[in-house]
């Protein structure tokens, strides 16, 4: 990190720290979204509406169209 400002990518160490914090924050938001998506997928898989659902059958049907 100390060498980053010297490479021309950042003008100062504080810019490096700000960028690291921004990236960390984005990563945390991504993780939360993925956890929520996984939870929703789990609920969808347990739904009685999907009892007779087959992904293979759906793919075959779409391929035949």
Q: Can you give a write-up of this model?
A:
With 65 residues, the chain is mostly helical. The protein has a domain at 10-47. Helix content is 72%, strand content 0%. It has three helices and no strands. The radius of gyration is 23 Å and the shape is elongated. It starts with a helix and ends with a helix. The model has no long low-confidence stretch (mean pLDDT 84).
In short, what is this structure?
InterPro entries: ParD, ParD_sf. The protein is an all-alpha fold and 65 residues long.
Pick out its properties.
65 residues; mainly alpha; elongated; single chain
Beta strand count = 0
How far is it from the N-terminal to the C-terminal residue, by CA?
55 Å
Continuous helix count: 3
Helical content stands at over 70%
Q: Taking Cα atoms only, what radius of gyration do you get, to the nearest Å?
A: 23 Å
Low-confidence stretches: none
Task: Give the rounded overall mean pLDDT.
Answer: 84
Shape: elongated
* Beta fraction: under 5%
Order of helices and strands: HHH
Helix-strand category: mainly alpha
Chain-wise SSE layout:
Elements: H1 4-7, H2 13-45, H3 55-64
Protein name: Antitoxin ParD1/3/4
Pfam family, one: ParD_antitoxin
